[in-house]
Amino acid sequence: MSRILVVEDEREIADLLVAYIERAGLQVLRATTVSDAIMMHGQAAPDLVLLDIGLPGGDGLDVLAAIRRRGDTPVIMLTANDDDVSKLSSFRIGADDYVVKPFNPSEVIERIRAVLRRAMGTSKPKRLSIGILEIDLEARLVNCHDAKGQAKRLNLTPTEFEILAHMARYPRRAFSRSELLEAALPGSEAYDRVVDSHLSKLRQKLVGAGCADVIEPVRGVGYRLWVEG
After folding, report:
1. Class of the 3-121 domain?
2. Strands in 22-178 per DSSP E
3. What is the tens place of the pLDDT at every residue in 66-96?
4. Which of 75, 164, 203, 211 has its CA 20 to 30 A from that of 50?
5. What is the pTM of this model?
């Protein structure tokens, strides 16, 4: 069952969308603010996001940009903004479709289905296998295979998972602290050095699972994931 994240602060509109989406046999998640939307996208890994532009706590385009920094989750903008600037900005950032309010709920459902079909035809792997590491991006699980070939699951925080998954997409590439911070906590005002704390705990968990210390510091840059095999 596909999961749809509805990001809409107007309760009546959100309730209407939820009713139609559930009737179509899809699972629904809800968020009403920019921060909640970014957090839920990272934690729940929805298959598609319906996204309003005017939201409490910021702009829906900020949510879209954060989603695109993380990956290719399909996004349909659902907004009262009918101006060309909003449309062009949305598509340039990476929106897959754009629906203007007021809308026909049945048409929105068909657009969701169409975008999901396109996404399934061009979907990227949901699992990354890099040497002794196996990362399930959809279930948000990480297994580490020790020297005996036995798999041990790592108990990671959402931030630790995002950092590891981002590095695993580009193994052996050196990442700056700011890059890792943006990948794991988009829009965060935390200092870059916060990454050192998360990386320290992540590396300890990897070693504790019976794996070599596969994340190594790169002097003058930051960190990289180096897995043999």
Report:
1. alpha beta
2. 27-31, 48-51, 54-55, 58-59, 75-79, 97-100, 127-130, 133-136, 141-145, 151-153, 174-176
3. 898 887 889 999 998 888 888 999 999 999 9
4. 164
5. 0.57
